[in-house]
Amino acid sequence: MRLEKIDDYRWLIPRTYKPGMLTDAVVFASERLLEAIRKDQSLEQAANITMLPGIVGRALAMPDIHQGYGFPIGGVAAVDAQHGVVSPGGVGFDINCGVRLLATSLKAAEVRPKLRDLVHQLFRDVPSGTGQSSQLKISDGDLDRILEEGPKWAVENNMGSEADLDNTEERGRIAGADPSAVSQRARQRGKPQLGTLGSGNHFMEVQVVDEVFDTQTADRYRLEKDGVVLLIHTGSRGLGHQVCTDYVAQLDEAMHRYGIRIPDRQLACAPVQSPEGKRYLQAMAAAANFAWTNRQCISHAARGAFKRIFGASVQMPLIYDVAHNIAKRETHVVDGKQRAVVVHRKGATRAFPNQAVFIPGSMGTASYFLLGQEGAMRETFGSACHGAGRVLSRSASKKGTTAKEIQKELESRGIIVQSLTREGLTEEKPEAYKDIESVVDVVHNAGLASRVARLKPIGVIKG
Amino acid sequence: MFEILEHPSDAGILARGSTREEALIEASRGLTSIIVNPEGIALKEERAFRASGSDDGAQIVDWLNEILFFFDTEGVVLVDFAIDSWTDREIVGRARGDFYDPARHEFRTAVKAATYHQFQSQKTPDGWEIRVFVDL
């Protein structure tokens, strides 16, 4: 594919690239990152999402873009809220997969001597959720409330505070969620998994503030060099996976009735205002609320683990919780006019001005805390990237290194890792991902979000 | 027989059989092998499968998602599959396996869903071939 260079961080896929494109796509990447991006089909997928009926502005590819199913991971597409379509594939199977960062009142020097105990405690107290392993037994009534109201349910059940809700995107509740739009099967999959981490690329990391770039913002969040934080990355578990599965199947059938033609069946979609589109958005909102509650329940268990190791006086305020697989009704200025749109963020983080943005790196490297900037509102419907982005397939990643070798190598660098499976280590080894520094450079220099602090892991818990 | 295909971020299954039914059974075995090492899984539990859809792609994806459903909701690992009927709208069958026990079984990775991405189900000179990618 021939890309037109706009500047050092922006590349254009013109709408003339292939028939059916309704608009251009813009790729945010450096020349070096682009080399890695070109190795898979993600740029073709970025071109494909410009074919979604009702797309507004340009389709966008973040610097961590990699090949997904239908939508690229790291793709953003906004559609007109009246005349556009909604695509469950533009959200993904893990609805409201996201990241939350908790500060602690602890410094690295206090944590290091007891780090192994802490990692073991976190591993014990936060189940991975394989089979049925949630420690929370919830009723159908509880589940209805969680789907409708999100983590407010957890706060009322002594698993968090009002401050946690204040520091969660949407206060953990997307309006319009309807539990009745969530199938019985989705409920059955999700109910035993509330408060569980999951496997794959989901993880929890004890991290140390390695460098502060923006002191004023860091002070606002009471972060300082050598302070310890906890990063949690997970989503809506089997409930969200089943909601996506259910609605991809329904919309796959429905789109033929609406005469919609798309280049990849996994992009199945329906008009936002159609009964099928509305129903999906109601179910997606419910699954998103479940995911925020999941991360809230995990936070509660993690706070308990820290207190058991370091005493009851440990404070762990939530810095922020942000989704990176979601479709949101928002208003944006497009070509000088206010437009009501539905923004699909598939592996992309909302990055509104002055909002906390987290970009986790691979296991053993660094993660970044950034602050959303005006540039994101002008160019990306208020979005930034969500991670480093894979460069090695899972099977390629498994070759050549054993889990024990990875564990030993990380320990030699002062990072203690505990994983339920060998695959959790070999598939997620640091070399499987792009260089986080290059990805963050693009986001910062393109003016989407600015660096606040770099966080380095010292303890990793993987499902 | 089946083989696991590479995908930049996930995994695929290429399953072959002398018939469409055999190919689907192989694809099912392939899917289970991504989640748990199937060696040593006893055939103690049986679950009924019913998968529907407007074409064989939708039906096959729905069938494979049944495996994920039983693992997530009951912790049952299914390794032995039988198809009783396959009509224009529906596949009906059964699967046998055992409850996952971390002390005895090797968990590999969770699968979120079977997808339509680059899906293929086609007759070949040797029989039938199904290609399906799953989201990990």
Describe this structure in words.
The complex is a heterodimer of chains A (463) and B (136). Chain A contains 16 helices and 19 strands. Chain A has helices at residues 31-37, 42-49, 108-111, 115-125, 140-149, 152-156, 162-166, 184-190, 215-220, 237-257, 275-310, 374-379, 394-398, 403-412, 422-426, 436-445; strands at 4-7, 10-13, 25-28, 55-66, 73-80, 85-86, 98-107, 203-212, 227-234, 270-271, 318-323, 325-334, 337-346, 348-350, 356-359, 367-372, 383-385, 416-419, 449-462. In chain A, helix 4 (115-125) crosses helix 11, helix 5 (140-149) packs across helix 11 and helix 8 runs antiparallel to helix 10. Chain B contains two helices and eight strands; from the N terminus they run E-E-H-E-H-E-E-E-E-E. In chain B, the strands form two sheets. In chain B, strands 1, 2, 6, 7 and 8 form a five-stranded antiparallel β-sheet that branches. Chain B has a three-stranded antiparallel β-sheet with strand order 3-5-4. The two termini of chain B are 22 Å apart. In chain B, 49% of the residues are buried. Chain A binds chain B through residues 39-42, 66-70, 73, 92-94, 130-132, 185, 188-189, 192-193, 198-200, 238, 241-242, 244-245, 248-249, 252-253, 264-266, 268, 390, 393-396, 420-421, 423-424, 427, 463, and chain B through 4, 6-11, 53-54, 57-58, 61-62, 65, 68-69, 71-75, 99-100, 102, 107-110, 112-113, 115-117, 119, 133, 135-136.
Oligomer: heterodimer
Shape descriptor of chain A:
globular
Number of helices of chain B: 2
Described by the principal axes of the CA atoms, the overall outline of chain B is globular
Instruction: Give the number of DSSP strands of chain A.
Output: 19
Distance between the termini of chain B: 22 Å
Beta-strand share of residues of chain A: 25-35%
- What is the SS-derived class of chain A? alpha+beta
Percent helix of chain B? 25-40%
Unreliable runs of chain A: none
Distance, first to last CA of chain A = 38 Å
Largest interface: A-B, 48 and 37 residues
Sheet with most strands of chain B: 5 strands, antiparallel
**Segments of chain B where pLDDT lies below 50 for 5+ residues?**
none
Task: Please give the radius of gyration of chain A in angstroms.
Answer: 21 Å
How many strands appear in the DSSP assignment of chain B?
8
The portion of residues assigned to helices of chain A is: 25-40%
